[in-house]
Structure formats: structure tokens, C-alpha cells
Design brief:
Two copies of one chain form a homodimer. By secondary structure, chain A is of the alpha+beta class. In chain A, 55% of the residues lie in helices and 12% in strands. In chain A, α14 (479-497) packs antiparallel against α15. Chain A has helices at 8-18, 21-27, 37-55, 59-65, 80-89, 108-142, 145-156, 287-323, 344-376, 380-411, 423-431, 440-453, 458-473, 479-497, 501-530, 538-555, 559-566, and strands at 68-70, 73-75, 160-165, 181-184, 190-200, 209-216, 229-234, 236-238, 246-249, 252-257, 268-281. The two termini of chain A are 43 Å apart. In chain A, 60% of the residues are buried. The longest helix of chain A has 37 residues, at 287-323. The first copy, chain A, contains 17 helices and eleven strands. The interface between A and B is large, with 103 and 104 residues. Chains A, B: It is an enzyme of class 1 (oxidoreductase). Chains A, B: It comes from Rheinheimera salexigens. Chains A, B: Residues 285-448 form the Acyl-CoA dehydrogenase/oxidase C-terminal domain. Chains A, B: Pfam families: Acyl-CoA_dh_1, Acyl-CoA_dh_C, Acyl-CoA_dh_M, Acyl-CoA_dh_N.
């Protein structure tokens, strides 16, 4: 595997030239003092160093070592300790945390870039700080001041880590049927009993305490998802609420760890709650909404996982394609071979990855910046678009990430299948992001019903209208093509709005894909506008310009397949009886 | 994982009702005495028993145990011995072998069905008999009578096994630059020196001898692929050419075994040849052509690997979807959940797999029957179409097989990522078939240049014309749709014929996919014609009819994406300099 090099130039291009985030940051009172272009770049470069030097070189070792369970103790790969310590010491674990509790207060657009690099370096490792950051978002928004003051500083500093405990063996997507219970105690606390599975970082030896955010049911809870409450259940309880040292062992313990396809450095635990002491977060029976604050944060991070793995896979495949001598295009001597990057089909594979990765990075930066605008300006329009795009980020970026890893593995031929090259690990690791935090099928349903149909397509239509208006104001080489596809999406949207919900659900996955390809077209439009001969090298401009053309000519037309499918009704799926499958 | 059940009904439907192979067999003097519908069905059922009972239940164990190397001995998973013995005792190892040398003389259409079942049961296991069968085809066609009489009986009986030794560490696709040498000896034999990698079943403890078919270069060989010769190099040399007992250890030994993403029960070896004694097969410097006899056989078997894994994955996903309770469509009680097969998006996933698997089985049977017609009738037209379709079988069926496994894994949600459910193994195992025996990118180039462009699209055009004529003679519900797509392929073909070879190569992969989808449409046409209320149950007919509709409405339209891509020139790929990637 080649040495990972963080794509710093492209990250800065997206932050500053495509999305002009420095200008935005300078308008925000909370950011203008501490964040300008140079600071942001320095932050990216420092994070890149840790990823490149302390994490990425050992990701195959982490896969090989995996995690081990002895008794109730879980051991992570040995080098994770030093790498995690570096994250803590640099303040990276609190990068986007609230300054009032010791966080660095950086915007999501910046922390998402760091997420991508961490995921390129080692997805399994990235989950330890990643889940903590998500939990902090939920606590900050929903927890009491007492809880926040005890837990947030320890979580931001990385001294403690956090989990999200949702799934039970019989209840994954359908959380409403969960069985874990929480019984109110006289002192205002709760006693939790039950068992949770698939708990990432549920037990490990990286931190002195682990804080579980747990969904459970109160005794009088209504049936279904409206009867779920959220609790904070630390592994070690602070001795009293005024100290923030966890000292008393709580009734939560790991039962077993899962043996998985990949992300072997991540401890995926069964956690048993046996009269574990917990504290309610938010309102009774409103826990799912609180947890979704964290879940939505995680869903964006999933996009970073897809992109991170795809970027690493691309770098490896590119290095191999330049190095591997096989066949010839211009060489006449049959005993001499040329690097395989000269072959048309190898270029097809590399460009398919490159064009989607770079659009993905632009897309991720966009969605993160919308969340920032929702937070700092309380901009409802930005919040609505971020809400619309969250399932797209999760599903499309992870599907594309996996696909990119598979394609990059293919560039290696037989060597791609051998463990020592590291490509098969990227495929195994990237696969999970399509599954967890709500499968991509669930994302598609969320997109279709909650994000599109619920408001009769209003937010999506407005977004498409804005894009059309932008393109009409500032045309570019591929304006006509992109406008044509926007019209196609609008026509399909109009058709979907006439359908019953069953048909809409049957169309959800293909519609999410259709919209995603067109939005990636919009990303290449924004990229094209941002190219400036005074700021960028001729090589950079040429690469972006031609990759954009490749996207419009050789990738975007895939959307025609989705259009053609969506023009047909999916009702045939219900003509097949269960015993005819 | 659910218990594998061989799809005997669908296999027989394809053999007898879709392709009427019993009628064909009865017209062949070599087959009519020994093969009728009942015999064929009995053969399929007997093979199914071994696959269902002796191989499939232990495939996860085989993955877990893997192969081990101690010194120069390789040990396969323990239960492989009994399963392999059953294959030998039943004559399965010589199923398609020539009767003159102890084979059973069965047609390819039948042995391909057995291949599929073996691959469903355990791809890694299937490779041991699979490579032997391929080697026998090459030996039968190219070896001297002396060689054939010594080796074929032992290989057909399964007492010995065989390998194909092509790849070297620096030479995979580009075999012309290989370095292994063969030096002529006074007794007519050769001494081989060199090292080969990725040798499937290169060393193992299933058979008493292993026969290597090795590509090497003679001292005076011309450079490139026209300077390669084929040799037979047994692990144990027969004491003299008149005995067929291998007794003298030859100078070939395993150097190491590869650690792979999957097919862990298959021993993938580095083989070192140190003055190994070999015998020339076929003409000097014409070895590549001889080896391609075997390679083409293997490429069809790759199709069976894709289909076999996909069938197993489908059965598992279907069982899970019927069993797993999550969410509700008609149930009103929020505390009760329904099987996930009620959900539209789960049906989408299952039907995408089912429609492609069944078309794939029809397709594989077709290609195999064309090979049979080329063999028994010396039918040049059938041979030409089989030749055209070989890379399609290899590439499209393995791409679809992998995709089906990934989709089936997705049906399981988080459980699909956990080893104990077996789905992640299917994904890992199916992945290799896209890579070995010529990567799928190489298949696409072969299809484009050697199979389509070389004859100016003549065979492909004739095939499309035949299909159109068939549809016009016997119309069916989806005639118009299918005819429209055939016209689209013809238009793209006309366009390709005007392009330079560089553009054609850039278009190769997408064109192979386009043609494949349309041919799968033809398969569903043939299926629809074969449904007969007197022979098939109403359930069977309904399932096929609705799945066909699903294919035409929800899968075939994907072809529009490929059409749209192919209407654009791929030359943009060459506008990007290597340092701009």
C-alpha cells in the first residue's frame, strides 16, 4: 500500500474557493477571532500529519491484530493508544466542541475534513473519537446543565469516550419494539436493564471511562417509537454530581464482541445493562428525537467514511497503476511493458473514482457548511437543505465509497485480492458504512418520505430552482447538459408526488441515486466556477476541468438509467406472492 | 445461514423447457443412448445431494480453517477430503470427460449446472475439481496420445488433480513478458526453471499427484506472447511413460501460500520450478493458444461461480427476509413487527437478485449448449456465438454475482456484516471471480476487439438480427421494449465501428454491460415462451411471468444509462496527463 497523503490542496480548494467559507467565518462573531484561512489550513495540516504518520501506516496492522476480549476487558490494537493520545493532546477530540465546555468551537465544515482524513487513515480507529463527538452534540443540545458540566469537558478532552446504544438483537431499524427498561428511582436517577448489540466502542482500553447514551423504555411508555427515552449511563459513575471523576463501577458490562467482515480494530460489543444507573436526557418518551441529533451527526460522518476509504483506495490504485508494468500502448518492443495507467480501461476505472471522490468532497463540504449556517445564523433555509441532504450524504457517499474501493481493488488485478496489498481491507472496511447508522435502504425511505414527500417536494424543488437559476446566471461548458438533467429530476418528482406511498417507497432507492448524480453535477459546476488562474496552478485547473468533462460525459449519463426505471411503476413487486420469491 | 437447496426445478426448466436440450441430445449419436430427460434430472439430483449435504453446510468452517502450509505440504480444510472422495466415487470429477479415457461424456450444458451447485456450496472447494476439468479439456485437444493415455484417466477419476500455471510476479495479463524457461533435453523432455504465483490448488493433500500445465519460454523463443509454450509438469513423474503411477518426485514445490480476501479453503500457491521435468503440449511457441482452450473453459466456470454465489446469497437473504420481524406495513399494533419481506425496498433488493440470477442461469445454459453444438455437430455458427459470449459470461455473470452477494448482505442489515451469518463470506468469495482468469476489464477488451470489432460486428449483428426475428415471429408482452433496446445496441455498435481502437477500448466495459442487459432481456423472452400450463404449476408460471415484468420494467431500463454514456466519446480520458490524476 502506498503512503497516504492527505488531499490538503483539494480540501482547502473546497473550503475557500468553492464554498468561500473563510468569508463566511469572518462574518460570524463566534468564529472571526479564531478562524481565518491560515488557521484553517494549519488545522488541516496538523490533523493530516497525525493521520499520515501515526494512523495510516498501521491500519493493516490494526486489521490484523483486531480487538480482543478477556473477561470484561477489551484490548484495542496496540498502536491505537499513542495515536489516540496524540488526538487528545492536540485537542482534536474536541475540535467541534462548544468552547463553554472546553471544546475548540470549530465549524462542522472544518471538522468534516478532519473526519475524512481520519477515515482514510483507518475507519476502525476513527470510530472511537467519532462517536464521542456525535454524543457530545446530543448532550449539548438535550442534557441538563449538571450533566453537561460533568461530561462534556471529559469527552471533549478525550479522557472519556462515548457510545450510542440503540440496537437490540430483535430490534434494529424498528427501535419501537426494543425491550430495555429504565425504572425511575427516588433520587431522580433510573435503573436500566436489558441488552444492546452492535455497540461500537462499547468497551475498550483507550479511555478511563465510557459514557453510554442508551435508549430504553419507561414503565408506562406507550408502544412503538413514541415510547422511547434517552439515558446517559457511564461505565464509571462520578462519585457525586459535583465531581467529574468517574469512580463507582456501574452495572454495564460487555457480554461479547462481534467477529466482523472488517473494521476489526473497532470493538463492536454486546452490552448488558444490569440495574445500571442512568440519567434521563431530554423529555421522557422523546428519546428518539434526542438520539437523532447524534444520529444525524453520525450520518454525515458516514459520508466521510465512504469518501475517506475511497480517497485512500484511489491513492493506492493510482500509485499501482503508475508503477505496475503490463502490456503496451505505444511501446513496440514486445519484451517491454508500460505502466498500466496508459490503458484506456485502467483510466476509466481511475477517473470514475477520481470524479466521484472529488465531487463527494465538494458535496460533504457543502452539507457541513449548511449545518454551520443553520447553527451560527439560525438560517432555516440552510437547515432545511441540510436536512434534505443528510440521507443523500449517508447513502450515496457510502455506496460510492464502497464502489470506489472495489474498483480500485480491481486496478490491482490478482494482487488486489491478496491481503498484503491492503486493498481488500479497504473494501471490507468501507462496506459497513452502507449498513450501520440506518441502512442505505432506510436512508432512501427517509429521503423519499420525510424529506421529499412530506413537504410535497418543496425544499427539493426550491433547491433545484436555485441551481437552475445559478447556472443561468453563470453559464459554463456543461450548462445545457446539467439543466437537462435538472428538468428530468423535476419531471420524476412530479410523477412521484402523484403516487401512493407504497410506490414511492419502491422508487425511493433509485430516486435517491438519481438526485445524487444530479447534485454531484452541481458540485462539478461549483468547482468549475471556482477555478482561477491567479490562485491555482495550470495543472490543477486542467485536472479539474477535464475531470469535470469526464463526469458530465461518462458518469452523469448513468442518470438516464434511473430516469428510465422511475418512469415505470414499481407496483410489479407486489404482484409476486411471498411463496413465489 | 439457511440450508442450501439446489434450484433443481429451475435447472431442469432451463435445460428442457427453455433450450429443449433433451431433444438435441436425442439427435446426437454420442449422447442419445445414455442421456435423456430422466437421466439428466437424476444426475442433477445426485450432484445436488452432495452439494447440499456434504459441502454447503461446512463452507463457513472451510473459510475459518483455511489452508495451512507446513514445510512443503499444504493441508486443506478437513472435511474437503470426504467431500472430494464422494465426487470421485460418483464419477463427478470426470462428468464431462471423454469416454475414451474414462470420462462420463456428458455435455457442457449439464456439467455447467453441476458447476453452479458446487459453487453455491463452496467456491473454494469447487476449484479443486474445476481446474482439473479445465486442464483435461486442454490435454484432450492438444496433448499427444501418450500423454492423454497416462494422464486423462487419473484426472477424470479424480485420483490426480491439475493446475494452470500462467502468472508470474511481474507478468499477469501480460504473459508475453514471463521469465520461466524450458530447456530441451536429449530424451525429448524439458527442464523448467522459474517461479509462478497465484496457482490455485498448486499444492494440497486431496490427491496423490498434481499435474501442472505450465507456460514457459523455449531458449530461442520470440519475444512477447508468440514465444510461449505449454508444458505438462507433474508433481510426481510416472516411472516410465507406460505406467500411470506417479512415483518420482519432480522439481516443483510450493514456496508459500497467499493470504487472501476470501476463498480461504483454496490453496493459492507460489510454485517454484527447479529443473522440473516437463513435456511439451502442442506446438512450440503456440502454448498460449493451447492454454486458452483451458482458459476459455475456466471463463465459463467463472460465470458459474458468480451465479452460484448469487444463488446461495439469494436463498439466505430470502430466508432472512421471511424470518426477520422489523417494522410493519399492514399491522396496526406498534408493538408487533412483520417480516421485512413486506417492505418495498426489501422486495426491490430481492427481486433485483432473483431476476438477474434466473436470467443468468438461462444465459449460462445457453452458452454451454452452444459449446455442445460446436462440439457434437461442429456447428460453426454456434461456435462463433459461444466465442462472442465467453467474455460476457465471465465478466457480466461475475459482476452480477458479486453485486447480488452485496445486495443480499444488505438485506441482513447489521447482521450481514457479522461473520456468523455467512453473508460476508459470500461477498469475499464472489469477489475473486471478477479478477482471476483475466480481469473483467480484460474480458471487456476481448469482447470489444477480438469478438466484435475484429469481424466488424458481424457475429453480434447476426445474433441481434436473429433475436429480432424470433421476437417478431413469436411476440410476447414485452416485445416492443426489447426490440427498442436491440435497436439501441445496433446504433451504438454502428457508432463503435467508426471509432479508433483507443476509443473502442475506452468504451469496452460499458458496451459489454449494455449488450449483457439486452441479452438478459432475451433470456427472459425465452423464459416467457417456455412457460406451459400443462407442465408447470400456476405458482411457477406466475413467479416467472412477474419476475420477467420486473426485469423489463425495473432492471432493463438501466441500459439507457449505458446507451447515454456510449453516445459520448471517451477521449476525454486522454486529456488528463498522468501527473493530473
Amino acid at each position: 500500500m502506498s503512503q497516504y497523503q492527505a488531499p490538503i490542496e483539494d480540501i482547502c480548494f473546497n473550503l475557500f474557493d468553492v464554498w468561500h467559507l473563510n468569508d463566511y467565518w469572518q462574518q460570524q462573531s463566534e468564529l472571526q477571532q479564531q478562524l481565518d484561512t491560515d488557521t484553517a489550513k494549519a488545522i488541516v495540516e496538523e490533523a493530516a500529519k497525525i493521520c499520515e504518520q501515526q494512523i495510516a501506516p498501521f491500519s493493516m496492522l490494526a486489521d490484523h491484530q483486531g480487538v480482543t476480549l478477556q473477561g470484561t476487558e477489551v484490548t484495542v490494537p496496540a498502536h491505537y493508544h499513542a495515536a489516540y493520545q496524540s488526538l487528545c493532546e492536540g485537542g482534536w477530540t474536541g475540535l467541534s466542541g462548544d468552547v463553554a465546555y472546553g471544546g475548540m468551537g470549530m465549524p462542522k465544515a472544518l471538522s468534516m475534513m478532519v473526519d475524512e482524513m481520519l477515515c482514510s487513515a483507518d475507519i476502525a480507529f476513527s470510530l472511537y473519537p467519532g462517536l464521542t463527538a456525535g454524543a457530545c452534540v446530543a448532550l449539548l443540545q438535550h442534557a441538563s446543565e449538571d450533566i453537561k458540566s460533568v461530561y462534556l469537558p471529559k469527552l471533549y478532552s478525550g479522557e472519556w469516550s462515548a457510545t450510542m446504544c440503540l440496537t437490540e438483537s430483535h430490534a434494529g431499524t424498528d427501535l419501537g419494539i426494543m425491550r430495555t427498561t429504565a425504572k425511575p428511582q427516588d433520587d431522580g436517577s433510573y435503573k436500566l436493564n436489558g441488552s444492546k448489540i452492535f455497540i461500537t466502542a462499547g468497551e475498550h482500553d483507550l479511555t478511563s471511562n465510557i459514557v453510554h447514551l442508551v435508549l430504553a423504555k419507561l414503565p408506562d411508555a406507550p408502544a412503538g417509537s413514541r415510547g422511547i427515552s434517552l439515558f446517559i449511563v457511564p461505565k464509571y459513575l462520578p462519585a457525586n454530581t459535583n465531581t467529574n471523576n468517574g469512580t463507582v463501577r456501574n452495572g454495564v458490562a460487555v457480554g461479547s464482541i462481534e467477529h466482523k467482515m472488517g473494521i476489526n480494530g473497532s470493538a463492536t460489543c454486546v452490552l448488558n445493562f444490569d440495574n445500571a444507573v442512568g440519567y434521563l436526557i431530554g423529555q421522557p418518551n422523546r428519546g428518539l428525537a434526542c438520539m437523532f441529533t447524534m444520529m444525524n451527526y453520525e450520518r454525515l460522518s458516514m459520508g466521510s467514511q465512504g469518501l475517506g476509504a475511497a480517497e485512500r483506495a484511489y491513492q493506492n490504485a493510482l500509485a499501482y497503476a503508475k508503477d505496475r508494468l503490463q502490456g503496451r500502448e505505444t511501446e513496440k518492443d514486445a519484451s517491454k511493458a508500460e505502466p498500466i495507467i496508459v490503458h484506456a480501461d485502467v483510466r476509466r476505472m481511475l477517473l470514475n473514482i477520481k470524479a466521484m471522490n472529488e465531487a463527494g468532497r465538494t458535496f460533504g463540504t457543502w452539507v457541513a457548511s449548511l449545518l454551520d449556517k443553520a447553527k451560527y445564523d439560525n438560517c432555516q433555509q440552510s437547515a432545511a437543505i441540510a436536512n434534505l441532504l443528510t440521507p443523500v450524504t449517508k447513502a450515496f457517499m457510502t455506496d460510492q465509497g464502497f464502489s470506489a474501493c472495489v474498483t480500485a481493488q480491481q486496478v490491482f488485478g490478482g494482487h488486489g485480492y491478496i491481503k498484503e496489498w491492503g486493498m481488500e481491507q479497504l473494501v471490507r472496511d468501507a462496506r459497513i458504512a452502507q449498513i450501520y447508522e440506518g441502512t442505505n435502504g432506510i436512508q432512501a425511505l427517509d429521503f423519499m418520505q420525510r424529506k421529499v414527500i412530506a413537504d410535497q417536494g418543496k425544499v427539493l424543488s426550491a433547491l433545484l430552482a436555485t441551481i437552475r437559476s445559478e447556472i443561468n446566471s453563470h453559464t459554463f461548458t456543461h450548462s445545457t447538459v446539467l439543466l437537462t438533467y435538472i428538468t428530468k429530476v423535476e419531471q420524476i418528482l412530479a410523477l412521484l408526488l402523484t403516487q401512493d406511498s407504497r410506490s414511492q417507497n419502491g422508487n425511493a432507492y433509485d430516486f435517491l441515486n438519481l438526485v445524487s448524480y444530479i447534485l454531484y453535477g452541481y458540485m462539478w459546476y461549483k468547482t468549475s466556477l471556482a477555478l482561477d488562474g491567479n490562485k491555482h496552478s495550470a495543472n490543477f485547473i486542467a485536472a479539474k476541468t477535464e475531470t469535470a468533462t469526464y463526469f458530465y460525459q461518462r458518469i452523469l449519463p448513468k442518470a438516464d438509467g434511473y430516469v428510465a426505471i422511475l418512469q415505470q411503476s414499481p407496483t410489479v413487486m407486489d404482484n409476486i406472492a411471498i411463496d413465489q420469491f
